[in-house]
Design goal:
By secondary structure, this protein is an alpha+beta fold. The protein has a single domain, classed as Hotdog Thioesterase (Thiol Ester Dehydrase, Chain A, Roll), CATH 3.10.129.10. It has 3 helices and 5 strands, in the order βααββββα. Strands 1-3-4-5-2 form a 5-stranded antiparallel β-sheet. The longest helix has 17 residues. It starts with 7 loop residues before the first strand and ends with a helix.
């Protein structure tokens, strides 16, 4: 499949104690954590992009601008959706949203960059050896 504006992808999760605000340390309430929601949105975008890239390529997240607008209790399913809305060279921009069984819980945009995995990992490793 070729990367093109308009492609969409969804992924889902059932909220568990392991992805609550308490577990993430991002709040004191036993509800779906904002970082967990953002991670699910990023996963939808990553999976969409990965379907279209060549072997040895992947994407890395570089920007997230998201509002978390409603709480989701443990046990409820959350679906995140990513839509590719812009391609600028290696830069991909996604409209992302999430909803639970009661309705919308968050939305925004997410940016990812296409990378060659081996080169990227070499650059990261060079930080440990002081050759960055």
């Amino acid at each position: 499949m070729e990367l093109k504006v308009g492609l969409t992808h969804e992924t889902s999760i059932t909220v568990a104690d392991s992805n609550t605000a308490i577990a993430y340390g991002s709040g004191g309430v036993r509800v779906f954590a904002t970082p967990a929601m953002i991670g699910l949105m990023e996963k939808a975008a990553l999976e969409l992009a990965d379907q279209c890239l060549t072997e040895g390529q992947t994407t890395v997240g570089t920007l997230v601008n998201v509002k978390h607008t409603a709480a989701t209790p443990v046990g409820m399913k959350v679906v995140a959706r990513a839509e590719l809305i812009e391609i600028d060279g290696k830069r991909l921009v996604f409209k992302v949203d999430a909803a639970d069984e009661a309705g919308p819980i968050g939305s925004g945009t997410h940016e990812r960059f296409i990378i060659h995995l081996e080169k990227f990992l070499q650059k990261v490793e060079s930080k440990l050896t002081g050759q960055a």
